[in-house]
Amino acid sequence: MKKKRLFKKLGKKTGLPPGSLVHIGENFNQATKIYLMDYNAEELEENSLESLQDFKKIEAKKEVLWINLEGLSDTAVIENIGKAFELPGLLLEDVLNTNQRPKIEAYEGYLFFVLKMLRLEEESGQASVEQVSLVLGKKTLISFQEKSGDVFESIRERIRKKKGKIRQMGADYLAYALVDAIVDYYFVILESFEERIENLEETIYQNPDQSTIESIYQLKKEIIFLRKSIWPLRELLNNLFKEEPDLISEKLYPYLRDVYDHAQQIVDNLELYREMLSSFLETCNSQLSHRLNEVMKVLTIVATLFIPLTFIAGIYGMNFKYMPELTWSLGYPLVWLLMLSLAGGMLWYFKKKNWF
Amino acid sequence: MKKKRLFKKLGKKTGLPPGSLVHIGENFNQATKIYLMDYNAEELEENSLESLQDFKKIEAKKEVLWINLEGLSDTAVIENIGKAFELPGLLLEDVLNTNQRPKIEAYEGYLFFVLKMLRLEEESGQASVEQVSLVLGKKTLISFQEKSGDVFESIRERIRKKKGKIRQMGADYLAYALVDAIVDYYFVILESFEERIENLEETIYQNPDQSTIESIYQLKKEIIFLRKSIWPLRELLNNLFKEEPDLISEKLYPYLRDVYDHAQQIVDNLELYREMLSSFLETCNSQLSHRLNEVMKVLTIVATLFIPLTFIAGIYGMNFKYMPELTWSLGYPLVWLLMLSLAGGMLWYFKKKNWF
Amino acid sequence: MKKKRLFKKLGKKTGLPPGSLVHIGENFNQATKIYLMDYNAEELEENSLESLQDFKKIEAKKEVLWINLEGLSDTAVIENIGKAFELPGLLLEDVLNTNQRPKIEAYEGYLFFVLKMLRLEEESGQASVEQVSLVLGKKTLISFQEKSGDVFESIRERIRKKKGKIRQMGADYLAYALVDAIVDYYFVILESFEERIENLEETIYQNPDQSTIESIYQLKKEIIFLRKSIWPLRELLNNLFKEEPDLISEKLYPYLRDVYDHAQQIVDNLELYREMLSSFLETCNSQLSHRLNEVMKVLTIVATLFIPLTFIAGIYGMNFKYMPELTWSLGYPLVWLLMLSLAGGMLWYFKKKNWF
Amino acid sequence: MKKKRLFKKLGKKTGLPPGSLVHIGENFNQATKIYLMDYNAEELEENSLESLQDFKKIEAKKEVLWINLEGLSDTAVIENIGKAFELPGLLLEDVLNTNQRPKIEAYEGYLFFVLKMLRLEEESGQASVEQVSLVLGKKTLISFQEKSGDVFESIRERIRKKKGKIRQMGADYLAYALVDAIVDYYFVILESFEERIENLEETIYQNPDQSTIESIYQLKKEIIFLRKSIWPLRELLNNLFKEEPDLISEKLYPYLRDVYDHAQQIVDNLELYREMLSSFLETCNSQLSHRLNEVMKVLTIVATLFIPLTFIAGIYGMNFKYMPELTWSLGYPLVWLLMLSLAGGMLWYFKKKNWF
Amino acid sequence: MKKKRLFKKLGKKTGLPPGSLVHIGENFNQATKIYLMDYNAEELEENSLESLQDFKKIEAKKEVLWINLEGLSDTAVIENIGKAFELPGLLLEDVLNTNQRPKIEAYEGYLFFVLKMLRLEEESGQASVEQVSLVLGKKTLISFQEKSGDVFESIRERIRKKKGKIRQMGADYLAYALVDAIVDYYFVILESFEERIENLEETIYQNPDQSTIESIYQLKKEIIFLRKSIWPLRELLNNLFKEEPDLISEKLYPYLRDVYDHAQQIVDNLELYREMLSSFLETCNSQLSHRLNEVMKVLTIVATLFIPLTFIAGIYGMNFKYMPELTWSLGYPLVWLLMLSLAGGMLWYFKKKNWF
Questions:
Q1: Which of B74, C4, C283, E100 could pair with B32 in a Cys bridge, judged by C-beta atoms 3.0 to 4.6 Å apart?
Q2: Is the separation of the CB atoms in A313 and A325 below 8 Å?
Q3: In the 8-state DSSP scheme, what is residue B3?
């Protein structure tokens, strides 16, 4: 089996002063790409930046400016953005450290979200985790992604085609829409889990073997990892309600409560899966031990039946000069009779004891 | 074994703007039916609507108007009702998504409940789950059900026959009556569980086998699923007390406390069942392993007894030319004596060791 | 084994309007009996009522009136009492439903307690549960019991013989005294558990068998049921402190704190018993599997010892025409030597491996 | 094994009015002894009282009066002290009931502590539990012990020799010093546990047997009992901070926080021990089952190897008249060849399967 | 196996008055060394003190004075420092008792931290724990370490080379930097754990044996110990936020929140490791028992196959005078036919039963 890394690299930063910008995570060696969407209810302007010189031009001319950044390996770009928008050093550090837990932090003039975006890899069908950081300002939203590819395509479509009310709303609604898209995609992951759980259940009652147990452990491990990504999200959204930050208008509260309900529902489901997998494991072990017991019972019955008979045959295989039975003319049939009645008696005893 | 779907479909809605009306759940392909009951202490008017054109006529002419809607697959109907009563989009979305957890939400002018209605299916004796959403306004109560058939028949009777004080009270009392009917029916489900638990206990002490273990796991799984539906209900009712919404008159509080007590009692009972089932499983496994041990002991005793004897018989079955014992005239009886005393000694040893 | 009902009947009331009086519980077919004690510091009047006509005469003439009612099957009596003292319908409903969890509720002018009274049945030595409801008014205390026989006899004696200060105090003190008597009797139950636990421990280390395990599970089940009755009591008493109802004078607070301490102590002890029983189970299973291992080891040693020897004997039992060893004059003793040294070698190996 | 009582007697008091003074606990039949220490910064007067007549003379002439009482079987003495210092009946009742959980209660003019004093018995090395009650007044401290012998000797020395600042401080400091001495001694108990745990760990990896498992359970049980005594202590000290009673001067707070830290540390350690013991048990069981598996493997290999060979020998031991092989001149060597190559093949198979 | 001490010595101090200075911990017999760093934004003065006479000279001449002290065995030095800076006795006592849990305490003019510094020992690769106490005053920071060697070298470099803003900030920032360095090093420890976990996982699926199980337990034990050191840290930092002490400027709050996030992340990871190790254990045990089952199955098949055949051979090895089969000319081939068809039938049965 090829060894797959279980963990991402943690903390290679030990010893540097706080606020030092170092990219911690898997290195995708990918050029940083920046997409801009600047829109209000009437107009929409889309741009993509690839050279650093273009930075000064970034400016929210319309109602909302969405700066989407993919690829974190070029720390210079991150630093420039930080300077352009006066973002604190600790915030940028957190953007680059892709081992953060989901969290929300209020900075002066900014609200900072760290989230985990899950996506099903198309070939393997396994979930991959990517950190998405959102920096919400008054009229701007900056989103940082680890690599290209995301779950936001439908939001871009809604902006372009004026679907829903996204074009009438501010940057806070855009932030909500991104969070909502991430959380909605969790349900796709959950569905893939449910499919695997259903397949497992079928196997368990029909034909369980050692590999079934390994599949259960494998799935359990994935759920443990997933839960680690999702668990703090609920808390995050709950804190958002309590702190009621200025940057988020009250009109958004019902929407956020809706996201919170979804996060709660996901956590509930993960708990349910865990309980079911534990139950599967127990069932599976019970099935396997039941099978072994069946095998052992057959051994016991066969051995217990034939060992005494073999002993009797052994007796009359002895070469003593004086063994009267050997010369009886009915000796041989009588021994058969003895052996058959002994075997019959034992079978009757086993039957009575309910052994088969 | 035929494969039964373990889970309902989750979130096929990914990518749509919030507030889009999509029916998520099992598709019953059932025409939406609407029943109206409009009553005050003196009068009662019952109607059923089947065409959409009749919608404009809906209006609370008397004290309380109960609009009961069965079947959610026709989203146009839901949308029309939403427009007629000015219900928010997120609320309607939750009505259609039948994977909600039980919850309560306050909207302007409305109180919104999501509940799970359980019913015993008559043929199979298994519990089926259906989502019921209640929208409580000043003088109206709208109830949305997934399919026809419910536990509210007794309430309709009480309205028709003026039993109890339901005709004197407002829409909030009607909402309470519906919640109470749903919760009361949970006890019927609990009773069916209790019957099965009692049967299981009898089996465990009399004649447990592998299928008993499977029954226990089956029941445990049902309890896990049921608890998922009921657990948030307690919290829901507790929140209701804390928020003290305007739409519910203070006179109703003792009644709601009563429902809360019932929900608490149900959760207590489910915990108790879980503990008992765990205990059953342990007992059952202990019984089964005890049986296997009995079988193994018999094997051990028989094998340990006869193996040495067979060896002795084997010795005197050898064909050596010079084996003095073979020619002794008492050789054969002496060997029997040796074997019997050996067997006796071993039996005495086993007895002393308390093996049988 | 005769099947004993594990559970009482739940909720046969589904479908009735709230406040309908139906007796839920085991039907004792017992006439309702009412005892009155009306007393102040100087005087005491005792009466017993058996006909319903006497009801109007009930009136607190002295300081405290204690109405003790045994037997709940006659709902008409309960209803009459309810009317006489203007008790709310929901309260009476709870009195009749004997599956309530222990709780406390404040109604206008009344404080309502539901408690579980445990008593050791004299023949079987098992604990039986009975629901006791107390309705505390300004000068009256009404106690409802399921059947005759209670743990209050000592309180009646104290009232009759003016022991302690019960005759100087009000109805709230009487209520406290009843609760205290119920809680004190729990300790008697605990003692019977402790005795059984001590006996079990002795058995486990001396002579455990399958029935020991069943006894442990049996005791564990009883503790689970008992805990369900007692657990909410602590919470109940704690709520009493927080709400500080008018009907209970401040002088009683130290006494109530005392009862609370006792309830806490009982819950602590039940937890301790549970932990010990779990530990017993593990020990017992470990002992039993240790025994099986001993048995298996003997089998292994005997079989491993004799199987090779029997093979050797089998070799020289073959009837080949040309087997040189058979004609050696020392053949037979040499085979014995071979077998004995083989056996000796194996025994030495087993000894070295610490197998016996 | 001699049966040791697991539990102390609970509640033999059922049926008496509250405030009745009955000694509940093991009866030491020991005369009550009273020691007095009356001191201020300059002077110290020590006395011991043995007759009841001396009671009236007790009076705090100097700054602090410490009345230490050993032996609770003589309830008359307790009652007299109660009268002399106007202590409430419920307090005295708690002093005499030695099954209390550690707690703190504020009475008018008094602060009442119940603590558990642990001491290592010198011969057996086992921990014995004794209840110590402290009644802290303005200038007096009364301490009640179950039997003679305590952990306070060093405090008496500090008072006599003016070590530390105990002579400059009030009765509250003395109370703190006593609590501190009791808690400090817990660490001695913990050390004895740690020694036993270390010995157990050594045994587990070297030579575990059934008795090792029993020792682990034994230690686990002692830790469960100990935790029951210590757990409420932390809560007690925490409550002391919250209530900030008048009788304790603010200067003492850092000291009390220190004791609280110790209690927390003890609870942490007990949890750690429990986790380690659970881990030991698992390791031990795994070791034992590993051993059994080794034994079973040897059996399997020997049996699987020789059973087919014995069968072959059996074949050529048959007495058929016409068995061509028997007359071949190379029959015997060929059979040996067959058997050896069969055995070799099986050994090679076992080796490949990694069975030995 | 050499016995390694599991626990440090606890509480050898029993019986001394509070505030007595005794060094509790492993005695390193190491001279106490004191390093001074006195700096402001422009200047830096470094000194090391080795004789006690130099003490009076200690004085913060510049903005921040960092006194770093290594080695606690010389209590006289500690006492002198205590006098020089007027530190309370209880604080010094805690500095010397190296079994403290991590905590924070506010004294007049001082904030006192106790932390656990972990370091990987270079040879063994195992984590060693050392207690670090920090006393934060207005312009001074005193750090106490148990032995020489620490994780602060990078901070000293930052001070010397003016890296980051440490030279512009006060003593509170220095304290933060030390705590941050300690917490950052925890990630190095976590990485070493992760490496071991990954190796274990590989082993489990490829070639598990008894020593794998022991490695898992070993790692689990280390994680339990580590968690005990780290767990209270989170609480500590949380308390810091709540109490908002004067000595820490508001500018530091984002930094402290950052450290808190890290501590949370570490605790999350430790929990994850624990869950994974439990899962590994189960997998490993399941693998090992699967192997044993495979072995047992082979035994069963071989034994069940040959025992009846051997019996048949035994039959025709009997020496009865009158056994007709023996004289049949086709007797021998017929017996072979019988045995082969019996063996074939059993193999077919085993195959059908899916035994191999």
A1: B74
A2: no
A3: P
Strands E140-145 and E64-70: parallel
pLDDT tens readout for residues B262-312: 888 888 888 888 888 988 888 888 888 888 777 778 877 888 888 889 888
Question: Touching B: which chains, 3+ CB pairs < 8 A?
Answer: A, C
User: C54 to each of C57, C78, E29, E258, how far by Cα in Å?
Assistant: 6, 14, 92, 77
- Vertex E250 angle, CA E244 and E255, to 5°: 95
> Edge-to-edge strand order for the sheet containing C127-136?
C44-49, C33-39, C64-70, C140-145, C127-136, C110-120, C103-107
Of the given ranges (A8-22, B52-66, E317-331), which has the lowest mean pLDDT? A8-22
Which is nearest to A6 in space by CA: E269, E222, E212, E217?
E269
Average pLDDT over residues D313-320: 85
| Alpha helix segments (H runs only) across chain D | 75-85, 89-96, 153-161, 171-206, 210-243, 253-315, 324-327, 331-352
The CATH H-level superfamily of B294-352 is Magnesium transport protein CorA, transmembrane region (1.20.58.340)
CATH number of the domain at A288-352, out of 1.20.58.340, 1.10.275.10, 3.10.20.600, 3.60.15.10? 1.20.58.340
**Which pLDDT score, from 0 to 100, does residue A267 have?**
87
The encoded tokens of residue B303 equal 């094998």
Yes or no, beta carbons of B166 and C288 under 8 Å apart:
no
What CA–CA distance (Å, rounded) separates E205 from C193?
Answer: 47
Contact E187 A296 (CB under 8 A): no
Tell me whether residues E164 and A88 touch, CB distance under 8 A: no
Residue D116 identity (one-letter amino acid)? K
Q: For residue C193, give the nearest of C161, C222, C214, C163 by alpha carbon.
A: C222
Per-residue pLDDT of C195-212, as tens digits, reads: 888 888 888 877 788 888
List the beta strands (DSSP E) in chain E. 33-39, 44-49, 64-70, 103-107, 110-120, 127-136, 140-145
Asked if pLDDT for residue A95 goes beyond 50, the answer is yes
Provide the token pair at D256.
């009390």
CA distance C235 to C106: 15
Question: Is the distance from CB of E257 to CB of E227 less than 8 angstroms?
Answer: no
Length of chain B, in residues: 356
Question: What is the fold, at CATH topology level, of the domain defined by D298-352?
Answer: Methane Monooxygenase Hydroxylase; Chain G, domain 1 (1.20.58)
Architecture of the domain defined by C293-352: Up-down Bundle (1.20)
CB neighbour list of residue C123: distance below 8 Å, 6 or more residues apart: none
At residue C166, what are phi and psi to the nearest 5 degrees? Answer: -60, -35
In the block, residue with structure tokens 């200067």: D251
Collapsing DSSP states into helix, strand and coil, what is residue E96? helix
Burial class (CB in 10 A: 0-12, 13-18, 19+), B30: middle
A356 vs E: CB within 8 A: no
Window 178-237 of D: residues touching E by CB (8 A cutoff) are 180-181, 184-185, 187-188, 190-191, 194, 197-198, 201-202, 205-206
Of residues B213, B296, B310, nearest to A311 (C-beta): B310
**How big is the A-B interface in CB pairs under 8 Å?**
157
Count contacts between A and E (CB, < 8 Å).
157
Give the type of residue at C222: E
Sheet containing strand A44-49, strands side by side = A44-49, A33-39, A64-70, A140-145, A127-136, A110-120, A103-107
Residue-level pLDDT at B178 = 93
Show residues of chain B in contact with C332, CB under 8 Å. Answer: 318, 320, 322-323
CATH class of D33-286: alpha beta
The CA-atom distances, in angstroms, between E43 and each of E139, E152, E163 are 15, 20, 14
